[in-house]
Specification:
238 residues; Trna Endonuclease, Chain: A, domain 1; 2 domains; seven-stranded mixed beta sheet; 39% strand
Length: 238
């Protein structure tokens, strides 16, 4: 399959030195460490670790405190994307190609639509029958023994999003949550109950209420992003 997206900027390989805060990673490219913006504020345990190879892109912006963007980290021979916001773009590109089985025939009407009861979600889609469907997209990178797990730190925001989807279903609207796993080395998805048991319980509850729960995997083969598994099995059990 042709790439969903291609990164068209410069990619520079370096080595992670440390992570001074959630949004910055220090990287050594040969000389003194440089600061790179980290677009994934998750825990990233086992991913953003000292000594790991990382791909970064130089950014020329005098108003920024960092001169690079962190793009992907090499983990056991696999590039793991560390750009949370990219999950929405990957979902939209796959949707436009009818590459996602639950959404064949759907089309994007609007990104970040307002919800009837306040707040926003990621996508408002036109379903094949002309009705509307709301979709919340979540980026996932944490993997243990082939199992992708979300979230990797507690997320009140994520719980709020699930409650909003549940309210949409109660009002008769079609609603979905889609987990985009930004690495290919997985064979199923499961909520990270040990990290956020309330999120795990809510995810099972909203699925029982009729919210679609889906997961896909993508692969980054620099500079290309591809869809790998268009229907990753979802396990909501213990």
């Amino acid at each position: 399959m042709s790439p969903l997206l291609t990164f068209d900027g410069e990619l520079r390989a370096g080595t992670i030195v440390d992570r001074p805060n959630r949004f910055v990673v220090r990287v050594r490219f040969g000389g003194d460490p440089e600061r790179a913006f980290l677009g994934d504020p998750g825990a990233l345990a086992g991913i953003v670790e000292p000594g790991r190879e990382v791909l970064c892109s130089p950014v020329e912006d005098p108003d920024r405190a960092t001169d690079f963007d962190a793009i992907a980290v090499l983990v056991d021979g696999v590039w793991v994307s560390v750009r949370t916001a990219l999950a929405n773009d990957l979902f939209e590109r796959a949707l436009a190609r009818d590459a996602l089985p639950p959404f064949v025939g759907y089309a994007c009407r609007r990104r970040e639509p307002a919800l009837p009861e306040g707040g926003r979600t990621d996508f408002l889609l036109d379903a094949p029958d002309g009705s509307a469907a709301y979709v919340e997209v979540k980026s996932c990178t944490h993997v243990e023994d082939g199992v992708a797990k979300f979230p990797d730190r507690q997320t009140e925001r994520g719980r709020r999003h699930l409650r909003s989807l549940e309210a949409l279903r109660e009002d008769g609207h079609e609603a979905h949550v889609a987990f985009v796993v930004q690495r290919p080395d997985v064979d199923r998805f499961r909520p990270f109950r040990a990290v956020d048991p309330e999120f795990a319980a809510l995810l099972a509850r909203v699925r029982d209420a009729g919210v679609g729960v889906h997961a896909v995997t993508t692969a980054f083969d620099p500079p290309h992003y591809r869809l790998r598994d268009d229907a990753l099995p979802v396990d909501l059990g213990e």
